[in-house]
Amino acid sequence: MEKRVMTGSKRRRGMAAVSALLGGVLVLSACGSSDDGGDKGSADGGTKKTQDQADKAAAKDASSARIKITPKNGSNKASINNAAKVSVADGELTEVEMTTSEGTAVAGSLSADKKSWKPDAQLERATTYKISAAAKDSDGREAHENATFTTVSPDNSFIGNYTPDDGKTVGVGMPVSINFDKAITNKADVQSHIKVSSSSGQEVVGHWFSGNRLDFRPEDYWQGNSTVTLKLDLDGVEGADGVYGVQQKTVTFKIGRNQVSTVDAKTKTMTVTQDGKTVKTIPISAGSPDNPTYNGEMVISEKYKETRMDGATVGFTDDDGKGEYDIKDVPHAMRLSTSGTFIHGNYWGDDSIFGSANTSHGCVGLNDVKGAKDPKQPGAWFYDNSLIGDVVVVKNSPDKTIQPDNGLNGWNMSWAEWTAGSEA
């Protein structure tokens, strides 16, 4: 068998190949830590030096524009009002894209100086949003930033449903009434972020009827023809443990002429005054002796040209559980209490009862016609000349005074009682 002898040159090439292979292993191993801290050899040192040089070169060429996105990436209780914003320092924004996690685009506006961007409208609760932003510095070098966040959920937030609505004209008795969808325990903090003021200069104080209801009114009725402003600054305010407000809103409404109508259940008449002058006296039929009308100051909270009144809904039922009455087209109805007290037209009663007999189940009835189509009827006149927020005072009824929280009827509390319920 022929023996082949490796020549010197071939041997050197073979050793070089082995050395190169081992060198490759050493280079790969250099990505980890060295236990002995010794010299890793010229191959590793060269690679590290090359990488450092590349990093320094990249850093030197990086954009000086610094993009900031709020809320921070990963936030999960972001505000739906002011949280979302993109800004840049040492550069200008060139592109901002905001979408929901489903890909729906969110419209936004870039500032004139191209330094900031924000959404055009309020965000949705319990929604995940993604923001991608790009900017350039003065040398045209680009910078990019991305963030994902989720807005506060309904379970972790509260809102206040308020009345009256923005831009309305209401009567002098109309309180600002706010009903919260979660019970408020941090009442003082929440009330401190709600302001109600009047152009008349009247002092306005809030009163908590419960953890869910806060009303505001002055000591006396609002001054006629004044302007009232409600400011809700509840965004981020903790109303209860882990439950935060989301509203930022300013509401303005007008107070109309001063109209107060006084129902005398004994004489069975109603006297209507405007700005202190009597404008009309109307014969009425109040609650019967078995079902008398509440006494007290009541505020018109709703108006319906026609509505259904079913006795079963307010506890007036017969032995079979059916309503003692069910009238599907009551004309010119105006609500005075949550529990079902109305002042309304009555077409089913004889004309002779108005001014002479109290026959209702607790409402105040005015003579009217079926269909609510005769403007000359007392029920129609009163409806046409009344505003939500007008006051109807009932006196000389054998019933008790209505509870202040039964409707918008806080006027039945003294000023001392009212202010005692404030957390300001």
From TrEMBL:
Residues 259-395 form the L,D-TPase catalytic domain. It comes from the Bacteria. It holds the Pfam family Big_10. Pathway: Cell wall biogenesis; peptidoglycan biosynthesis; Glycan biosynthesis. One of its GO terms (cellular component) is extracellular region. GO terms for biological process: cell wall organization; peptidoglycan-protein cross-linking; regulation of cell shape. InterPro entries: Big_10, LD-transpeptidase, LD_TPept_cat_dom, Transpep_catalytic_dom. The active site is at residues 344, 363. Residues 1-30 form the signal peptide. GO terms for molecular function: acyltransferase activity; peptidoglycan L,D-transpeptidase activity. Residues 33-64 are annotated as: Disordered. Keywords: Acyltransferase, Cell membrane, Cell shape, Cell wall biogenesis/degradation, Lipoprotein, Membrane, Palmitate, Peptidoglycan synthesis, Signal, Transferase. Residues 37-59 have a biased composition (Basic and acidic residues). The keyword Ligase does not apply. This is L,D-TPase catalytic domain-containing protein.
